[in-house]
Amino acid sequence: MAHFGILCPAASGHLNPMTALGYELHQRGHRVTVVGMPDAKPKVLAAGLEFRAIGEVAFPLGAVPDAFTKLGQLEGFTAFRYTIELFKQLTLTLLQEAPAALQSAGIEVLLIDQTSFGGSTVAQFLDLPFISVCCALMLNQDPKVPPFNTAWRYHSTRWAQIRNQLGHEFMTRIARPITDLVVEYRQHWNLPAYTHPDDAYSNLAQLCQQPAEFEFPRQHLPACFHFTGPYSNSASRAPSSFPFEQLTGQPLIYASLGTVQNQLLGTFQIIAEACRELDAQLVIALGGGSTPEALLPLPGSPLVVEYAPQLDLLQRTTLTITHAGMNTTLESLSNGVPMVAIPIANDQPGVAARIAWTGTGEVIPLKRLSVSKLRSAIQHVLTKETYKDNALRLQAMIQRSGGVKKAIDIVEQVAATGKPVLHQQK
Length: 426
Fold this sequence. Notes:
- The chain is α/β, with parallel strands linked by helices.
- Helices cover 42% and strands 13% of the residues.
- The chain starts with a strand and ends in a 9-residue tail after the last helix.
């Protein structure tokens, strides 16, 4: 049995899928240690995994939630710039402190979230085999695919490729504070320079929790890239209490803006008003951004909770209103639930573009959100059968994709052989 290490941000959207992978490894008899900021510890321990803290000075307990609270008050490009600055500081801490923590823990193989920038540099410095994991929207660049943080539609025309290329170049410039740090440490550690942003990902295996059908057509993925489907497991998450006895039996509309972009409380007012006259029950999960008591009374008296047992609740849901976070999106599709997406920041516009592209929901940009537009989109998704049919189509594809078990089969093969695991063409 091997000792696996996990590197990922201390955010639910990354910890939930990564600890699901770690939980499966642990169930198969391996030792698993998550190395991260102190705020990650509760979720790691809830999954039954070991934890090793770094960043106790730069990011003491409570620092990451405070940063996400500020991020949750922002939107669009302003939020993205703040994210870049936050991840610059996280990357510096990772580069400074992770090598010693990994060595002292005796880690043999690493699973590294794509957004743990600098993680692959640490792995190469320690000469550790590593697997890259896409928990959010995959970051791999392709000239035919728009940058991950844009709402641009997919087109295969020449003009679209030029647009995409300019977008990728702009993104590279914006992310330079992070990449400059990585370059500095690679030079200091005598590691070869990257010639392309995708050089930071594993040449042994790259895992993506999107099913292939929930991604624009791509031509430039490495042979070791695997679309495996979602990484979710209720057994690896801390339980959330929920008043199931208050459900009325009406069609259920579940609304969540995730655990980061959830500070725009006026959005919940709009959601409640849009659903007020529908023959449905609205459940709102605040994601820790506020408490039900702190909200002004909402129209229609929806059932409001601070956190919801999302995996359980989605089994009863008719429609999801979402910020287009990758986990909520994939968990909705895993249950055949269509969506109305209100993307706010970071990769959410890109996820929303794929919701529209797959026909599994409607999209309303936050700046265009109004009660009338949201109510119209909800009614459209609820009454037009194609949305449900497409969600069920994606559900079937997810069920065939393999999910956590397929991903860990690949991880174990890398650990056993030290060689690339190549995608098998159907």
